[in-house]
Amino acid sequence: MQDYHNTRIIGFDLGHGETALTWVRADNQETSPQSFLINNRKSQITAIAHHRSGELSLGKWLVS
Questions:
Q1: DSSP states along 12-36
Q2: CA distances from 2 to 6, 26, 28, 31, 63 (A)
Q3: Which of 22, 25, 46, 48 has its CA at 20 to 30 Å from residue 15's CA atom?
Q4: How far is Cα 43 from Cα 33, in angstroms, rounded to an integer?
Q5: Which residues is 6 bridged to in the sheet?
Q6: If DSSP codes are grouped into helix, strand and coil, which group holds residue 57?
Q7: What is the model's pLDDT at position 63?
Q8: C-alpha to C-alpha distance for 15 and 51, rounded to whole angstroms
Q9: What is the reported pLDDT for 22?
Q10: What is the three-class DSSP state of 51?
Q11: Rounded Cα–Cα distance for residues 47 and 55 (Å)
């Protein structure tokens, strides 16, 4: 039997416009998934735009 003490499982959700990461302890089935905070946010905008000027915008810098 393998010891999973202090082992964390990471979940990755690559969505159409947002991406999120969560983790859960492998040795405790009662633990709820916890979100990783990146730039103090639980999810990151992953939209990409190509402008007529040739510039690319990524994430929160997306210009509509």
A1: EEE-SSEEEEEEEETT-TTPPPEEP
A2: 12, 11, 14, 19, 50
A3: 25
A4: 14
A5: none
A6: strand
A7: 53
A8: 22
A9: 93
A10: coil
A11: 14
Residue in this structure with the two tokens 């994430």, named with its chain if needed:
59
Token output for 5:
């003490």
Residue type, 61: W
Backbone angles phi, psi at 10, to 5 degrees: -105, 130
- φ/ψ of 31, rounded to 5, equals -75, 135
Residue 8, both tokens: 């964390």
Given a contact cutoff of 8 angstroms between Cβ atoms, the answer to whether 30 and 37 are in contact is no
Q: Confidence class of residue 21 from pLDDT cuts 50, 70 and 90?
A: very high
Name the residue type at position 28: N
**pLDDT at residue 44, as a whole number:** 83
Structure tokens at 10: 């990471």
**The tokens of 28 are what?**
């405790």
